[in-house]
Amino acid sequence: MAYIKRLKYCINNEWLESATSKYMPVMNPSLGEQIAEAPCCTQSEVDAAVKAAAAAFPGWSNTPIPQRIQLMFRFKALLDSHLDELAMLLATEMGKVLAEAKGDVLKAIEVVECACSSHYLMQGDTCMNVAAGYDTVSFREPLGVFVGIAPYNFPAMIPMGWMLPFCITTGNTFVLKAASMVPQTSIRMLELLIEAGLPKGVVNLVTCSRVEADSLLTNPAVKGVTFVGSTSVGLHIYSTAAGAGKRVQALCEAKNHALVMEDCVLERTVAGIINSTYGCAGQRCMALPVVCVQESIADEFIALFKKKAMELKLGPAYDPSSQLGPLVSAAQKQSVENWIQRGVDEGANLVLDGRGAKVAGFENGYFVGPTIFDNVLPEHSVGNDEIFGPVTCIKRVKDFEEGLAIMNGNRFANGSCIYTSSGRYAREFAKRTHGGMVGINVGIPVPFSIFPFTGHKDSFFGDLHAMGKDGVAFFTETKAVTSVWFTEEDSKKAVSTWDGTLTRN
Fold it and tell me: How far apart are CA 186 and CA 417, in angstroms?
């Protein structure tokens, strides 16, 4: 029997054995074998993580911001030097092929780099003489303890990119509820952060069930919650935590659409959508699982798309030659296969069936091959709901207007893309699409870290998005200070009900 590693949780930079009797399996999806077990931390252990973060906040928030940023510089250097190690670990526990796993870590590093400019992004404003002798200054300051509830699909980028860097460089402290299916990547990255000089209590890590996680939403010491996951859970987190007076950003499900016009560069368009749809085996919220194709080129597009999809090499995630890895779990594999059957039952035309895919030597792996449906109609749930697997739905449309209407009719609006050579169509699309992140001949329009990750509609609940200026604003609050300095003459003057701050008589 293979060795199964028992994982620990972290409080005050100490890795602790949980008192729990319940452990959650961590699998190798390529083999379908358990490789580790994560503790379902007890309620007292989760509470202790919050208490440690709260105790660390006064000292950390008063640490000069250049010192907080220097921690990020050291962390970034360690991430760079351990890039290959982290990519292999991520690929092993999550199932992304190595190139994608490396990209996951690199996108985390990208936000760490951006957080090194937090002193600039936190700058406030000043204006002298807002009234006679009165000056006003505004500045941003941290709030306290934030909680991050991370998903399984990006074990590096989301918890250690979107969530942690801006949180702690702005002076807050952090409790990470790592995804129990893929905790090892976050654990290793936290080890590197501690090596970089992280003070005790500033970042704490637990794995637990939904019951313990729910307590974080109402804990009085918690000031805000950042979440990535399903829309149903995100809505619960948003309503519960916001109802308890906390800040919330909840990044949720997607059903991104691409609109392929007859004037597109066909070969490059197909290549871009193949990459978007089947990267991470479709388990990413910026995938392109639905393609609205103009009828005049639909047959040609589908033929080429099917050809390219069938050429993808299915294999274990940690084999550098693999182009499509397994799904994260047996349950997710079954869910995707159930969705494929639902598409058949609804009457969509199954052009390519990825069910029953096998890889020699990895027969127990959670593999589903590329799957393509044609003639998916607006009423087909397979084309409207998130599947989170390597399944492409083709919707044939007469023209730009019909395609745009179908796309905008979906309840999700994380991202949307158009492939065209027309500047007019591109501009009109950018203006009128509901997608929060828009690609023009770009299949994965995830913005660079100085910009926010801007999902719309049921893809996001909250006011301030992850990354960029939004990310800094989410983890800080603005304080405005108005001041005046008195002369001897001022002591003789009457004080108005506005104390001199009224700008007009």
Answer: 31
Q: List pLDDT tens digits, range 75-89.
A: 999 999 999 999 999
Contact 442, 276 (CB under 8 A): no
Give the 3-state secondary structure of residue 198: coil
Nearest-CA neighbor of 411 among 429, 391, 435? 435
| Residue 1: band (very low, low, confident or very high) from pLDDT cuts 50, 70, 90 | low
For the stretch 131-173, pLDDT in tens is 888 999 999 999 999 999 999 999 999 999 999 999 999 999 9
- Quote the longest CA-to-CA distance of the chain: 92
Catalytic residue from among 208, 280, 285, 393: 285
- Report d(CA 419, CA 97) in Å as an integer: 26
* Mean pLDDT value across residues 471-476: 97
Dist CA 446 CA 276 (whole Å): 11
- Burial-class residue 442 by CB neighbours within 10 Å (0-12, 13-18, 19+): middle
User: Is the pLDDT assigned to residue 494 strictly greater than 90?
Assistant: no
| pTM of full prediction above 0.85 | yes
To the query of whether residue 285 is one of the catalytic residues in this protein, the response is yes
Distance CA 323, CA 493 (A): 78
Q: Domains, the chain, ranges and CATH?
A: 10-19+34-252+459-480 (3.40.605.10), 257-440 (3.40.309.10)
Q: 20 and 40 in contact (C-beta within 8 Å)?
A: yes
The stretches of 62-201 forming alpha helices (DSSP H) are 65-81, 83-94, 98-115, 118-121, 157, 164-169, 183-195
